[in-house]
Amino acid sequence: MATTQDIRKGLTIDYKNDLYTIVDFQHVKPGKGGAFIRTKLKSVTTGRVIDQTWNSGESITPVRVQRKKYQFLYKDESGYSFMDQNTFEQVTLEEDMVTGHEFLKEGQEVEISFHSETDKPLSCELPPFVILEITYSEPGVKGDTANNPSKKATLETGAVINVPLFVDSNIKIKVDTRTGEYVERVK
Known about the structure:
By secondary structure, the chain is mainly beta. The chain has 3 domains: 2-62, SH3 type barrels, CATH 2.30.30.30; 65-125, CATH 2.40.50.140; 129-186, CATH 2.40.50.140. It contains no helices and 17 strands. The termini are far apart. The mean pLDDT is 89.
């Protein structure tokens, strides 16, 4: 058992029968009354973010989470299949457990979080940026440059994102998997 003094960013705790990761926290010492800790918690299972306030010294239940690197193999009706490159062990995850699944391509390395005690997979995260090829985009219209113009482009994974007018088909681009936005062209 731990107390609120052990709170830090990235710590995973058991709270209200769910697992939450501490995204942000602030220790507050008002002029009158006792100190308290204000936190932002992100649910590991649903991704929902909540605010929670604890009095200083309250007990919390930390949970050990292990992160392992896996390689994406394929997607079928049972879900997304990944393989540990060291042990060749395979694990299949449902679509809602994979954040940014629309940018996932075969052979890509991801990080899967496991509950250390039950060895149950909790979530799968892609790298912050991936390099993908544009398979189709409409040609840009010359002169249409008012108000930061953009057009739709289809990536090799099937995802559709907005890109600047100068980006054409068969060009590799860097995409931010957290926001789904175009970052830059890649040579």
